[in-house]
Amino acid sequence: MNSDIKYRILIAWCTFVLIIFQQNVRSEKITFQKENYTPDYSFYHNVTSIVSHMTKIVNKYGKYINLKDEFRSKAGHSQLVIRISNFTSEKSGRDKVQILFAFGEHAREFFPVESMFYFLKNLTRGLDELHQGSLSGAYSAWVVNNFDIYIIGMTNPDGRYYLEESGNYCWRGTGSGIDLNRNFDWNFAGPGSSKDSHDEEFRGPRPFSEPETGVFIKLAAKISFDAFLSFHSGIRQIYLPFADTKSKQQNRLPENIDHMLKLARRMSHSSPSRPFQFGLAHRLIDYSADGTSFDYMAGVASVPFSLAVEMWGHENHTGSSCFDEFNPRSEHLQEEVALVHPLYVEMLSYLLTWKTRKSAARNRASSTLIRVRKDNSLNSEHQQDVLYASQTSREISRSASFESQIIYVIFALVVTGCVILGVRHTCQLMRKKRIVSLKSLSLTFSLCKHL
Ligand SMILES: *[C@@H]1O[C@H](CO)[C@@H](O)[C@H](O)[C@H]1NC(C)=O
Ligand SMILES: *[C@@H]1O[C@H](CO)[C@@H](O)[C@H](O)[C@H]1NC(C)=O
Ligand SMILES: *[C@@H]1O[C@H](CO)[C@@H](O)[C@H](O)[C@H]1NC(C)=O
Ligand SMILES: *[C@@H]1O[C@H](CO)[C@@H](O)[C@H](O)[C@H]1NC(C)=O
Ligand SMILES: [Zn+2]
């Protein structure tokens, strides 16, 4: 071979390395990972016991809880949509605080579903004590008489079935790998999602392509919810809209931001010893997320309070396993779900006060319309919250950009090495050894997506 051909082979080879490397940095492939820790199903629910437990509850407490079994997944599994209210009270749904909770959008996040069962256990035990004059009974009566709560108990049953059958505890999407929290019609197909069906943020072919997201539009079309909450795990943070790329660039805020911040602060301090971090999603997180449920509910469905709540996170997770990154160990589960329960209590109490004041104000005068806020200013009392949030995000993005800088420096060295040395055996050596190590390097640096 003459040296010209050798040089061309070299260039082609280096280009190849570049492409492979960039792909590894950019997309997070869904990988099957060896688990260090798997759940004990005598502590955690599995998909079978989720269904049977929920069925038991609705059968026993039909006066206050009923099942809307028509909402089903692509594979036909029930999404366990329930409604909680005192169905015999004179107050109509609209006079109560109407709320939508969504649990289990992401298959590997078991914790929020367990937290929902704790919430239901608290409520139903109180209902059992209604006539004994206990405080628990009074609390449950307060809930059913003042609130009309819709719960999507298992937003993504197919994904959960798949996870349990395959033993792949890293699974996040539906049965066909679609990330439901990228499938909503708000900045759909933006860069904070993926068109690659092997990526864990695969958004699907078009907005609302999945029957699992249909339930959100149908319920929102029928009911003017006062609040929507999407529950997740992986970290302990409370996010306010918006999380999408455009809003991040434009610093867009939802209309009701001042009240939302107040609510988030109350929820954050429901756990006084370990308050949750909270703030605008686009300032708290270092990535953007396009097509999410809570952005849609705030921006399109005009729900006054729309939040994503990350309920639990491992303090110092390392390694490649997933279950223990998103969920506490089996023996700590009961203690952890009890610790987050005050979050619901504070939320309900805040929302009832808000709605009562709002109804009083409406009776006096004008109605409120929720729109995307035009000025990007905040009440001064909230500047602090947002500052707090942006400081956190600056820290996160600093470390993230430091990581990507290292990656690109290494990469530049590899390419320059290839070109300058121009020695074939250097590249041959790299073909075997370096690519493997660079790949694992980029996986190590890939930031975990929980929202
Ligand atoms: C699901 O959990 C129940 C206990 O709640 C257990 O009896 C059953 O065997 C589990 N099913 C599977 C498939 O693990
Ligand atoms: C539900 O409403 C009915 C009718 O107002 C009332 O009699 C009943 O006590 C209420 N249930 C609870 C748990 O408060
Ligand atoms: C449910 O939670 C409320 C609020 O924390 C509490 O007052 C009540 O006693 C709890 N009910 C039961 C049965 O534990
Ligand atoms: C995190 O690490 C510290 C010190 O290494 C340890 O004491 C603590 O238990 C760890 N936290 C968790 C949740 O594992
Ligand atoms: Zn999630």
Automatic annotation (TrEMBL):
CDD domains in the cross-refs: M14-CPA-like
Family: Belongs to the peptidase M14 family.
Signal peptide (from-to): 1-27
Taxonomic lineage: Eukaryota, Metazoa, Spiralia, Lophotrochozoa, Mollusca
Essential cofactor(s): Zn(2+)
Natural source organism: Candidula unifasciata
Record keyword Transmembrane helix present: yes
Active site: E310
GO biological process: proteolysis
Gene Ontology CC terms: extracellular space
Claim: Transmembrane is one of the keywords in the record: yes
Domain Peptidase M14: 43-351
Keywords per UniProt: Membrane, Signal, Transmembrane, Transmembrane helix
GO MF annotation, one: zinc ion binding
InterPro entries hit by this protein: At5g42320_M14_CPD, Peptidase_M14
Protein name according to UniProt: Peptidase M14 domain-containing protein
Transmembrane segments: 406-424
SMART domains referenced in this protein's UniProt entry, alphabetically: Zn_pept
Domain of life: Eukaryota
